[in-house]
From TrEMBL:
Domain Aminotransferase class I/classII large: 11-323
Similarity comment: Belongs to the class-II pyridoxal-phosphate-dependent aminotransferase family. Histidinol-phosphate aminotransferase subfamily.
Gene field: hisC
Entry protein name: Histidinol-phosphate aminotransferase
Organism of origin: Pontibacter ramchanderi
Record text on subunit structure and interactions: Homodimer.
Residues carrying N6-(pyridoxal phosphate)lysine: K201
Residue ranges the record marks as coiled coil: none
Signal peptide: none
Length: 338
């Protein structure tokens, strides 16, 4: 297979099946009015999301990507008090700790169990009177593992009132497991729960930077204290509104990802490469007898970008057939040269 010019950007979990044509048309139209400031606090989008999620529009904050919201949460809940602490899990999304460390706030990463589940006993042991925030990613990046409703409730039940728990659902649209927790449905019962979602993944809008948080009003008010009024540009707001309307694109994405994942899993099994079952648009591979660095560098030299999760594992974004076949071909050449 001679495909060396193909670039497989499999390192950042974008939607490699593209973006909705309806969204692109709406953005094109919005280019006519870029002289004006964006709609403050993205009111139209919040109303559309509220209708979809069954919450009030004033229970939503829109951010310039969910990354901005992670930053605002850490700033608002920990920034005033250098003694405050952030808890999260490892392996998981590193930005939670990066944001804490940027403010010189202590961040503890609690190891997940050997099957990448949240260890509630370990979490209990790490709770302090100074713990302010706990970040949980579901489905988890980079493992693809997930919490069931029961498992998430067990976690939420053990967290005291002085801890705000942030459930980051960046990949929730991809989750097909029927018992995967839906944290938005739990908001009414847990006053200190925040749910984060994004348009960067399944909606295919990573470059326009737009995400949202949903929580009870008292938490929303606190985050609004540190949010800039025009934090989300108008093109992003227009794009997100159009993306919510194009349900067909979302369905197509989820289906193509499922199919692509199944094909990749089948081929990896045949090749003897181990991986973890994933609810996201990515797979975590075991580097086997190789170091993750070696495989990463070999693939990079062949125009395939994957993410090193640690020394033994690599994370790979699901993509179109052509890309995956090329990756499989290159892996085969490395692992089983003929
Ligand atoms: N949460 C998780 C778990 C992620 O993987 C990412 C991006 N990789 C983000 C949040 C941030 O996404 P964005 O800022 O693009 O919304």
């Amino acid at each position: 297979m001679e495909n060396k010019r193909l670039l497989y950007q499999a390192a950042t979990n974008e939607n490699l099946f593209g973006s909705s044509p309806q969204v692109l048309a709406a953005m094109q139209q919005a280019l006519n009015s870029v002289h004006g400031y964006p709609t403050p606090d993205a009111a139209d989008l919040r109303h559309a999301l509220a209708g979809k999620l069954g919450v009030q529009a004033n229970e939503i904050v829109i951010g310039s990507g969910s990354a901005e919201l992670i930053s605002l949460l850490v700033r608002r809940f920990c920034g005033h008090d250098r003694e405050s602490e952030v808890l999260t899990f490892t392996p998981s999304y590193p930005l939670y700790c990066h944001e804490a460390q940027a403010l010189r706030i202590s961040c503890t990463e609690i190891p997940l169990t050997s099957s990448y589940q949240v260890d509630v006993q370990a979490l209990r042991r790490q709770l302090r009177p100074t713990t302010r925030l706990c970040f949980i990613c579901n489905p988890n990046n980079p493992t693809g593992t997930y919490l069931t409703s029961t498992a998430l409730e067990e976690v939420l039940d053990c967290l005291p009132a002085h801890v705000t728990t942030v459930v980051d659902e960046a990949y929730i649209e991809y989750a097909t497991a029927t018992d995967c927790a839906d944290a938005v449905a739990m908001l009414a019962r847990y006053p200190n729960l925040v749910v984060l979602r994004t348009f960067s993944k399944a909606y295919g809008l990573a470059s326009v930077r737009i995400g949202y948080m949903v929580a009870q009003r008292h938490l929303i008010e606190q985050v609004l204290e540190v949010k800039q009024p025009y934090n989300v540009n108008q093109l992003a707001q227009v794009a997100a509104l159009a993306a919510l309307e194009d349900e067909h694109f979302l369905e197509m994405t989820v289906e193509a990802t499922q199919t692509g994942k199944a094909k990749l899993e089948k081929a990896l099994l045949k090749m003897g490469v181990q991986f973890w079952p994933s609810q996201g648009n990515f797979l975590l591979l075991d580097a086997g007898g190789y170091s993750a660095d070696d495989i990463h560098n070999y693939l990079l030299a062949n125009n395939i970008l994957v993410r090193r999760a640690d020394q033994h594992t690599l994370r790979l974004t699901i993509g179109p057939d052509e890309h995956q076949l090329y990756l499989l071909h290159m892996l085969q050449e490395l692992l089983h040269p003929s």
